[in-house]
């Protein structure tokens, strides 16, 4: 088994999620040992929701799942990089392709890109 250092972060490690085709950083999330094992077993990105205190299979509500194409672990074994195929086109719960859709310009945040879906419609199901 791959030895990830979950102890260093009180049971969680940060996960950078990147589009495998073009390198866009889609999001950052956290994994515990259970979500790490589930991700490896299923090939679908699974995280630990800090706000809900439970496993979070990305896209389970929205249909915008992440199919894992490649996995990298940093030199300290305490950060994971997932390269994924973003099914549905949007990684962000706000409906954008990436969670990093706001750019700092002159001390303000400016939205970059177009919404792929309306969160009010998707999450009201």
Strand order of the largest sheet: 2-1-6-5
Structural class: mainly beta
Q: How would you sum up the major sheet?
A: 4 strands, mixed
SSE string, helix = H, strand = E? Answer: EEHEEEEEEH
Describe the structure.
The chain has a single domain (7-122), classed as Ubiquitin-like (UB roll), CATH 3.10.20.810. The protein has helices at residues 33-42, 119-122; strands at 13-19, 25-31, 46-49, 54-57, 66-73, 80-86, 102-105, 108-111. The chain is mainly β. A hairpin with a 5-residue loop joins strand 1 and strand 2. The strands form three sheets. The protein has a four-stranded mixed sheet. A two-stranded antiparallel sheet has the order 3-4. The protein has a two-stranded antiparallel sheet with strand order 7-8.
